[in-house]
Amino acid sequence: MLDGTAEALANNEDVKELYLGGHGAERKSFPEPEELQAEEAVALTHYDNLETRSADAREAALAEALRRQLAHAKAQAPHYARVLADIDPVAAPLAALPITRKSALIAQQSADPPFGGVVVTEPGMLARVFVSPGPIAEPEAAATDYWRYARALHATGLRRGELLHNCFAYHFTPAGSMLEGGARALGCPVFPAGTGNTEMQARAAAQLRPRCYSGTPDFLKAILEKADELGLDLSSLRLGHVTGGLSALSARLVRRSPTSRVAELRHSRYRPDCL
């Protein structure tokens, strides 16, 4: 954050509600401008040089990656061999590519289990298989940061050695594994908290002292409120990577929580693919 902007934010009554609590006698109602500026600087460093490419270089790289992926899918996956039969992977513009809709994929997987002809990875190369609402079977390959969440967590501010309190579900759906894989790629340990058990979540966070939360914003709010009720210190929890329900965040999430100073909240959708 630029000089002056941090100071302006520090004096803004609406923004103050997002930065709360502290350690014991040193607790402040809102961080000083210098503290805000330092935290923003950490969050805004680049994950790798892909993020500093020119727009032309990024567009060219994406076009080439698309061509390679189309050729691979057409040659290897039965479903894409059919739908891309009349498509030239080298020359086809993005707008000309056929779309496989979720409803069609559900029917395909029911007729041709488990994946409906869209997956070519050998079963022995898969680490996990999920069943998301639909139902839709989803594979996860045995690869480092398969879902590419390290980039998103790095943008949030998480750094090597810092603990992630991961409250995304670990069963059936891939969300928990998505965030864990990203954190591990950054060199960060993970507390696989999952969902539910709000009091246990608050007590575990007070003991383990995580730097970052991942999960839904509403559940973070519930954990902070339970910590308030129990008199627990969650001041280590400075970062949050959340998805879902970000509207009116200041009113719904961290308002008036004296035990937390969650200073940076980032939101992502299902797969934050940046490459």
Class derived from helix and strand content: alpha/beta
Largest sheet, in brief, is:
5 strands, parallel
Rg, nearest Å: 22 Å
Question: Low-confidence runs (pLDDT<50, min 5 residues)?
Answer: 1-43, 270-275
The name CATH uses for the topology of the largest domain is Rossmann fold
CATH superfamily of the largest domain: Cobalamin-binding domain
The CATH C-level name of the largest domain is Alpha Beta
Mean pLDDT: 80
Number of domains: 2
Helix content: 25-40%
Written description of the protein model:
α7 packs across α8 and α9 packs across α10. The chain has helices at residues 5-10, 13-16, 33-43, 55-76, 78-83, 102-111, 150-156, 175-185, 198-208, 217-230, 249-252, and strands spanning 126-132, 136-141, 164-166, 190-192, 212-215, 239-242, 264-267. The strands form two sheets. Strands 4-3-5-6-7 form a five-stranded parallel beta sheet, sandwiched between helices. It is an alpha/beta fold. 39% of the residues lie in helices and 11% in strands. It has two domains: 5-44 and 147-267, 3-Layer(aba) Sandwich (Rossmann fold), CATH 3.40.50; 64-118, no CATH class. It is built from eleven helices and seven strands. The model is unreliable at 1-43 and 270-275 (pLDDT under 50). The radius of gyration is 22 Å and the shape is globular.
